[in-house]
Write a structure and sequence with these properties.
With 216 residues, the protein is mainly alpha-helical. It is built from ten helices and no strands. It is globular and about 65 Å long.
């Protein structure tokens, strides 16, 4: 006999209750842990990027939902932990509290009339939260795509006066190629460009060229 879907009038609560029911009743879902979910999380995040950059509004709505499902999934797994359980409400409460702290110009008496001033408040609040960190690189995930990671690390490096190696005009080996790639990312950062997005766009164009060649 089939089980009815949760009927909460709150759409987000209904989604959370649906996840809870799936965890209870689906034998595949019951065996999944946080580590098992990582590839799905990465895949869904990548598909959301595709929807943002090249998809339709319907694609964007669907992919946002798929990524939300991953968040709900992780929170549902966490809620059943024997040692340190927390659920989606705890996640949402912690998020709201953090965003209030990081926007004192919205929820407090601070003033920010430019994007630069907003970043000053954001970074000050973040520094206060992360005061136990000993390096500007603490918290930077090495699982980011390489170009995005390079751009992030260059920004962090600039905070302590570190710059990348000069780019060789004609790389002679893999090490020099790394210097040249980093220099290109540094140029992108200085111009306000997104190196990762730039390469994604060029690869999409290359894919179109390949398909055109295949069909000719």
């Amino acid at each position: 006999m089939s089980q009815p879907l949760p009927s909460s009038s709150d759409a987000l609560r209904r989604a959370a209750e649906t996840m809870h029911a799936v965890r209870d009743r689906c034998v595949w879902t019951q065996r999944i842990d946080h580590d098992d979910l990582v590839p799905y999380l990465q895949e869904e995040a990548a598909e959301l990027v595709d929807a943002v950059e090249t998809g339709t509004r319907a694609d964007l709505k669907e992919e946002l939902g798929d990524l939300l499902w991953q968040v709900l999934f992780h929170a549902e797994i966490a809620s059943r932990d024997d040692q340190d359980p927390f659920d989606i409400d705890d996640v949402a409460d912690a998020l709201a509290e953090k965003m209030v702290r990081r926007h004192p110009h919205v929820f407090g008496d601070a003033v920010a009339t430019t994007p630069e001033q907003v970043l000053v408040h954001w970074n000050a609040a973040k520094a206060a939260e992360k005061r136990t960190r000993t390096s500007v690189l603490d918290g930077v995930s090495t699982h980011m795509p390489s170009l995005a990671l390079a751009q992030k690390m260059l920004g962090k490096a600039s905070q302590v006066g570190v710059t990348g190696s000069p780019a060789p005009a004609d790389p002679a080996d893999e090490s020099e190629l790394g210097d040249a790639l980093l220099a290109l990312v540094a140029r992108a950062r200085s111009e306000g460009w997104d190196a990762e997005r730039a390469l994604r766009r060029r690869l999409r164009a290359l894919a179109d060229e390949v398909r055109a060649a295949e069909s000719s």
